[in-house]
Amino acid sequence: MTGALAAAGARGSGRRIGPHCVARWLALTVVTALVAACATLGHLAFQEPAIALKEIAFTSIGLTGGTCDLVFDVWNPNAYRITSTRMEVGIDLEGSHFGDALLERPLDLSATAHSEVRVPVRFEWVGLGAGAKALLTKRAVAYAVTGRVLLDTPVGTETVVLKGTGNVPLTKLFK
To answer: Which residue range forms the structural domain that includes residue 56?
Structure first.
């Protein structure tokens, strides 16, 4: 290969390219390829999605309890699409445990975009105390949410821990 490069160099300028020039050119090519690979991997580095409880939407209420959807806003800051394989959520309202949810259907989270995720929860009135009263009398309630989400990404499986508190609006059950 050195002879071919030397011949090419000799044709163009009339001088020969020495082995040191070929070694420098080869080293520069390798360094350039490594820098390009690192830049590509930098775009694949995983950043945790931001997950916030946006709303509690009641779907049914009965004498013993009911069902609702926890409506989450999920921001995927990554430059690639990720999918969830499992979402586990526990929620407390007004300091009382309200319910637990498990979502095992895949969720598709588009690159650098917000997605709305609805997680169904079944609850019982027994043991809700102040949380039950707040559900019936307030437009918003204090919540605490805990859990985890398992995500498939191009760089492997990642686990994101859910933990948050705040106030969340309730949708009107009867419109």
So the answer is: 50-169
Please check whether residues 17 and 60 belong to one and the same domain.
no
DSSP string, 24-92: HHHHHHHHHHHHHHHHHHHHH---PPEEEEEEEEEEEE-SSEEEEEEEEEEEE-SSS-EEEEEEEEEEE
Per the domain annotation, does 174 fall within a domain? no
Domain count of the fold of the chain = 2
Mean pLDDT of 87-107: 90
Whether the per-residue pLDDT at 58 is higher than 80: the answer is yes
Backbone angles phi, psi at 104, to 5 degrees: -110, 5
| Residue bearing the bigger pLDDT, 15 or 8 | 15
What is the dihedral angle through the alpha carbons of 146, 150, 153, 157, rounded to the nearest 10 degrees? 120
pLDDT of residue 70: 92
Most confidently predicted of 35-39, 137-141, 157-161: 157-161
* CATH number of 113's domain: 2.60.40.10
Instruction: Give the C-alpha distances (Å, rounded to integers) separating 111 from 43, 87, 114.
Output: 12, 19, 9
Q: Could you tell me if 77 and 29 lie in one domain?
A: no
